[in-house]
Design a protein that fits this description.
Layout: H1 4-26, E1 46-48, E2 57-67, H2 73-86, E3 90-102, E4 109-121
Parallel strand pairs: 1-3
Antiparallel strand pairs: 2-4, 3-4
Length: 123
C-alpha cells in the first residue's frame, strides 16, 4: 500500500529541486560588453583588398543589393558612412555575387549584384 503523504512529499521535493535548477540556470553573469569604438570620419575609412592580418575587431556587416546597372560610387559612400558611424576604420569585401532576378513589375529579368562588406577596426 502506498502512503499518500509520502507521495506528496516526494512530489514536493521534485518540484522544489526543479524550481531550484531553473532559478540557478537563470542566475548567470551577463556577457562582458564589447569594447566601444568612437565614430571615425568617413574620409578615414579605407577599403582593403583582402582580410587584414590579426589583430582586428569586427564592427559589423553591410549588404548592398541593387541592379548591376544602378550600382555606382554611391554604394561605397553609403558603406563608408555606416562604417564610420560604427567605429570601423577599414572595410573589405567579404562576398560579391552577380545573379539574375525577375522584376515583379515589368516581368523582365534584370541583372543584380549583392556585395557583403565586413566592417573592421584595425589598430
Amino acid at each position: 500500500m502506498v502512503n499518500l503523504q509520502t507521495v506528496g512529499s516526494r512530489h514536493k521535493c521534485i518540484v522544489v529541486a526543479a524550481v531550484g535548477m531553473l532559478l540557478g540556470a537563470c542566475a548567470h553573469k551577463p556577457a562582458p560588453a564589447a569594447p566601444q569604438y568612437p565614430a571615425v570620419p568617413e574620409q578615414s575609412v579605407r577599403l582593403l583588398a583582402a582580410v587584414p592580418k590579426s589583430p582586428y575587431a569586427r564592427r559589423g556587416v553591410v549588404t548592398i543589393e541593387d541592379r548591376l546597372a544602378a550600382i555606382s560610387g554611391d554604394a561605397w559612400l553609403q558603406v563608408r558612412a555606416i562604417a564610420g558611424q560604427s567605429g570601423a576604420n577599414a572595410v573589405f569585401v567579404r562576398q560579391q555575387h552577380t545573379f539574375w532576378l525577375r522584376d515583379p513589375q515589368t516581368k523582365q529579368r534584370v541583372r543584380m549584384e549583392r556585395a557583403v562588406y565586413q566592417l573592421v577596426y584595425v589598430p
